[in-house]
Design brief:
Helix content: 40-55%
Oligomer: single chain
CATH class: Alpha Beta
Order of helices and strands: HEHEHHHEEEHHEHHEHHH
CATH architecture: 3-Layer(aba) Sandwich
CATH topology: Collagenase (Catalytic Domain)
Distance between the termini: 28 Å
Strand order of the largest sheet: 3-5-4
CATH superfamily: Collagenase (Catalytic Domain)
Number of strands: 7
Shape: globular
Largest sheet: 3 strands, mixed
Number of helices: 12
């Protein structure tokens, strides 16, 4: 049942090695720990560290602690009953807005066949959001049974842990005057998970969660081509020890990160009455994204997560932003800046 998926992964990783250009157009060193630097970098050079530098210097890891982040400190025992109706209405509004943007992006994309476009829209229409904790036997990966969110292919459902509906991930008081800050945190989390409903794995399940493949061979090939580009893109990032990221491992989840950020930038721009307000809204979105993703980790944590599907948060943030054209517009990123990637080398996610 899963054999074709294995073949797919092997082929796309082979394609990365075979077709990657000999010269690297860019190469990024992403610092895990800001304490070793004399001053904060510019936003154009390392956006993640630019936003989180002071926090990282003020919160060194204590002996025996492997990770400090908003996720690791959240109250995973928070019950869904503690969430008020105002919050539920706002979150459901975000959920519907994200689905609407994705539907427009899918219909305008050249990577989906006409049949796949129709099937993807049907899945989005049927997709539901559940706020709660994974129950016994629920189809959650082990990592998602702690604080987090995930997409359940067998239920066509996004499950969101109620622990993410408090600061710093969400603040209902900021929704009216600073909606973009919420979109940069809880919005990105929702958009990431929703994108899995119509990605290369989601193409194997119908709107009811039955294993019915609606991706055609052409759809598979189009996704494979984009994943190969993203794998090559991610492989050019390195951490403090200069070991490069395993791009083949990180490509699938990085694809979801990039689509999520693309989606949220469009929501912000559509809701801004002027160019100036659009730029400021995008700035708040990007800062919130980096701030919510702040993370201090030990060498052991890095070692244990080298083969994980998700890159470390500093790489995730900088990679997604460097692939997003609106980031260049907001921060006037130019050739020579650390975050700069030539336009033809930025992954296309649609």
């Amino acid at each position: 049942m899963y054999f074709p998926k294995v073949i797919f992964i092997v082929l796309f990783c082979f394609a990365v090695m075979l077709f990657s250009p000999a010269e690297a157009g860019f190469s990024f060193r992403c610092h895990v720990n800001g304490a070793g630097l004399l001053s904060a970098p510019r936003a154009e050079d390392d956006f993640y560290l630019y936003v989180n530098y002071d926090w990282m210097r003020a919160h060194p890891l204590q002996r025996g602690v492997d990770e400090v982040s908003p996720f690791s400190l959240a109250d995973d025992g928070m019950a869904s009953e503690a969430i008020d109706n105002e919050t539920l209405n706002i979150i459901n509004g975000y959920f519907d807005d994200i689905k609407a943007v994705y539907a427009r992006r899918i219909m305008a994309s050249d990577m989906f066949s006409e049949g796949a476009k129709s099937a993807a829209i049907q899945k989005l229409d049927a997709l539901t959001l559940r706020i709660g904790l994974p129950g016994e036997g629920h189809n959650a990966p082990d990592a998602a049974k702690k604080t987090g969110a995930y997409y359940d292919y067998l239920k066509n459902e996004v499950l969101l842990n109620p622990a993410l509906l408090v600061s710093p991930f969400f603040n209902p008081a900021t929704n009216s005057d600073d909606r973009e800050t919420n979109l940069g945190s809880i919005g990105v989390i929702l958009a990431h998970e929703i994108s899995h409903s119509f990605d290369v794995h989601g193409g194997n399940y119908d709107p009811s969660g039955n294993m019915v493949k609606w991706y055609t061979e052409d759809d598979d090939n189009a996704s494979m081509e984009r994943l190969a580009v993203i794998a090559d893109f991610m492989s050019k990032y390195s951490l403090d020890d200069d070991e490069n990221v395993n791009g083949c491992k990180k490509a699938y989840e990085s694809f979801a990160d990039m689509r999520a950020l693309d989606c949220l930038t469009r929501i912000v721009m559509r809701g801004s009455p002027s160019e100036e307000e659009s730029r400021e809204g995008l700035r708040r979105l990007f800062v919130s994204y980096a701030w919510t993703s702040r993370q201090m980790v030990s060498d052991r944590f890095i070692s244990e997560h080298r083969e994980a599907l998700h890159a470390l948060d500093n790489v995730r943030v900088n990679a997604a932003l460097s692939s997003n054209d609106m980031f260049y517009y907001v921060y006037d990123v130019k050739i020579g800046d650390g975050m700069y990637v030539r336009k033809r080398e930025r992954p296309r996610v649609w």
